[in-house]
Amino acid sequence: MIPVVLVTGFLGAGKTTLLNHLLTAARGTRIGVIVNDFGSIDVDAMTVAGRVDSMISLGNGCLCCAADTSDVDGMLARLAEPALRMDVIVIEASGLADPQAMVRLLLASEVPNVRYGGLVTVVDAAGFAATAADHPDLARQLKLADLVVLNKTDRVDSTAELIRTIRTFNGEAPVVSTTHGALDPSLLFEVGPNLPVARQLSFDDLADHTDHAHARYETVSFTSDDPMHPVRLMEFLDNRPAGLYRMKGFVHFGVPGHEDRFGLQTVGNYLRFHRSPWPRGTRPATQLVLIGKDVDTDQVLSRLAACARTDEVEQRDMLWVTRYVAEE
Ligand SMILES: Nc1nc2c(ncn2[C@@H]2O[C@H](COP(=O)(O)OP(=O)(O)OP(=O)(O)O)[C@@H](O)[C@H]2O)c(=O)[nH]1
After folding, report:
1. Ligand 1: centre distance to CA 151 (Å)
2. Are 35 and 44 in contact (CB under 8 A)?
3. Among residues 56, 96, 118, 173, which is most buried (max CB within 10 A)?
4. Is the dihedral of CA 152, 26, 30, 42 positive or negative?
C-alpha cells in the first residue's frame, strides 16, 4: 500500500520548499507528486520539475473542488501504477484548498494499492499571528493536521509562544520546527521502519464544508515577452496593493550582465529574487502569478504591463533589484 501524504498550509507558508526538500533529502525514495497550483502558469510545478520521479499537475484545478472521487482516483492510479514502483505519493495542496474535503476524497479512494498517509500542515512562523487573525481556514488546517511543520523559524526570535498557540488548535499533533522546510522525510513516510499513523477523522470533521476559502481570493496571471524595466517593476513591487497577498514567478530583465532568470517570491511584505539561468530551450519571458483579496486585477495587470521596458536601462538600474536577490 502506497501512503498518500497531503501537505497543506496557508499561502506562502513553505509547502513547495518542503516538497523540494523532501525530494532532495529522500533521493532513494521514489516519490510521486501531485501539485495543486493556482493560476494558469504552473510556477510551482516548474520549480519542482526535474527533481521528481513522477509528477501530475492539476494545472488550474483544485483538488478539493474535484467533482468526484474518480478524478482523484484517476491521478492516484496513474502514480500508483506498479511499474513506477512508487514508495509514497505526496500531494501539495494549494494554500487555499480545503483540507477536510481533500482528506475525505482520499479516504474514499478506491485505488486498491494506496492508503491515506496523513495531513501535514505547514505554518509560517513569522506570519502566523497575522494570518491566524484574518483567516479562520488556518485554524481548520491546524485542527486536522497529523503533523504541524512550524517553518521559517529563522524569521522569529522564539517559537515557544507560537507552539503554545498552535497547541490550542491541535493538542495532539507533533509540532516540528524547520527552516526552509528541512523536515526529516522519515517523519512523513517510510524511510525507516516506522510509519506515521494518520489520525481518524471524527464525524464532525467529515461534515460538509461551507465557507470555502477560494471565493474570497482572486488569482491572476501576468505574462510578457518584453523585458521588464527594473526601476519601474521595483516601484510596482514597493507599492503593491495591500490585498495582494502573494506573487510568484519569473522575471525577464535582459539587462546586460543580468540576463538570468529572476525568480520572484512575495509573501505579504516579504520580497525575494532568486537568480538562476533560464533552463535550456526556454525563451526568456516574464511569468507571474498574483493572488490577492479585493484587488483591482485590471489595474494591477495594466500597472505591470506599464513596467515593460520601452526606454533605455542603465546597468546600475539593476541595483534596485539585486539588493533583494537571496544569497544561495
Ligand atoms: N526565511 C525563510 N524563507 C522561507 C522558508 N521557507 C520558505 N521560505 C520562502 O518563502 C517563500 C514561499 O515559499 P513556498 O515554498 O513557495 O510556499 P508555498 O506554501 O508553496 O506557497 P503557495 O504555493 O503560494 O501557497 C519562498 O520565497 C521561500 O523561499 C524559511 O524557513 N525561512
Report:
1. 9
2. yes
3. 118
4. positive
What does each C-alpha distance from 112 to 50, 81, 85, 92, 172 come to in angstroms? 29, 11, 15, 22, 29
Cα angle, residue 233 at apex, residues 229 and 238 outer, rounded to 5°:
150
CA–centroid distance, residue 113 to ligand 1 (Å): 32
Q: Which three cell numbers stand for residue 327?
A: 544569497
pLDDT confidence band for 194 (50 / 70 / 90): very low
219 lines ligand 1 (CB under 6 A): no
Q: Is the CB of 309 under 6 A from ligand 1?
A: no
Give CA separation, 34 vs 39, 55, 202, 223, 321, in Å: 16, 6, 26, 24, 33
Supply 211's cell numbers: 465557507
Q: What is the pLDDT of residue 193?
A: 34
- Quote the pLDDT of residue 18: 92
Domains in the chain, CATH or no CATH each = 2-214 (3.40.50.300), 217-322 (3.30.1220.10)
* ipTM associated with this complex: 0.98
Pull the grid cell for residue 223.
505574462
- State the distance from the centre of ligand 1 to the C-alpha of 274, rounded, in angstroms: 12
Task: Please answer whether residues 126 and 206 qualify as being in contact, where contact means their C-beta atoms are separated by less than 8 angstroms.
Answer: no
Q: Does the Cβ of 44 fall within 6 Å of ligand 1?
A: yes
User: Which residue among 7, 11, 16 is best mutated to probe the pocket of ligand 1, counting the most ligand atoms within 8 A of its Cβ?
Assistant: 16
Distance 17 CA to ligand 1 centre (A): 6
Could you identify the atom of ligand 1 that is nearest to the CA of residue 20? 15
Q: At what angle do helices 99-107 and 69-80 cross, to 10 degrees?
A: 70
**What order of strands is seen across the sheet that includes strand 286-292?**
218-224, 286-292, 244-252, 261-267, 270-276
CA of 246 to the centre of ligand 1 (A): 11
pLDDT digits (tens, 9 = 90+) for 214-273: 445 678 899 999 999 999 999 999 998 877 878 889 999 999 999 999 999 887 777 889
